[in-house]
From TrEMBL:
Residue ranges of domain BHLH in the record: 19-68
Annotated Gene Ontology cellular component terms: nucleus
Chief site of localization: nucleus
Low complexity bias: start-end ranges: 112-123
Gene3D superfamilies xref list: Helix-loop-helix DNA-binding domain
GO molecular function, one term: protein dimerization activity
Species in which this protein is naturally found: Dioscorea cayennensis subsp. rotundata
Positions of region (Disordered): 1-27, 99-123
Keyword flag Nucleus: yes
Protein name, as recorded: Transcription factor LAX PANICLE 1-like
Encoding gene per record: LOC120282931
Keywords attached to this entry: Nucleus, Transcription, Transcription regulation
Keyword Transcription in annotation: yes
GO biological process terms, semicolon-separated: axillary shoot meristem initiation
Length: 146
């Protein structure tokens, strides 16, 4: 084996550490320095990142990025204008109301010819008038008063 070529680097204790000058070693060292620098930046961006180990900080960074994406979505939704109201005219409502009155037969059922004298034969299949909450106000608004 050939002796390794190295460059001396002083450590804090006064001893010299030999650093390899081989291209792959230099590239690996530079890569480690870049990773270390990026971790320092990431730790400064994540809340509480400086107080965590690397794995915990990465997990927290993932959660934090997801949280920020959710916040962006919520803010974008809040900034979007509301959808336009559904366009309708009184003729549409009149047409629909007349259609309903012609398709629903509200006449009582004929008396049952069965020998059973239950009260079900005297009941209507549905109440003679069914309305919904706010119907009167809506009909008067469009000019239909019943």
């Amino acid at each position: 084996m050939s002796p390794r070529k190295g460059v001396g680097k002083r450590s804090g204790g006064g001893r010299t550490i030999k650093l390899s000058t081989e291209p792959q070693s230099i590239a690996a060292r530079q890569r480690r320095h870049r990773i270390s620098d990026r971790f320092k930046v990431l730790k400064s961006l994540v809340p509480g990142g400086n107080k965590m180990d690397t794995v915990s900080m990465l997990e927290e960074a993932i959660h934090y990025v997801k949280f920020l994406k959710t916040q962006i979505s919520l803010h974008q939704a809040a900034l979007m204008p509301p959808p336009p109201p559904f366009p309708f005219s009184s003729s549409d409502i009149t047409m629909n109301a007349s259609h309903l009155s012609t398709t629903i037969d509200a006449s009582p059922l004929p008396p049952s010819s069965s020998s059973s004298s239950s009260s079900s034969s005297s009941l209507l299949p549905y109440p003679p008038f069914i309305s919904f909450k706010g119907e009167a106000e809506m009909l008067s608004y469009v000019g239909l008063n019943y």
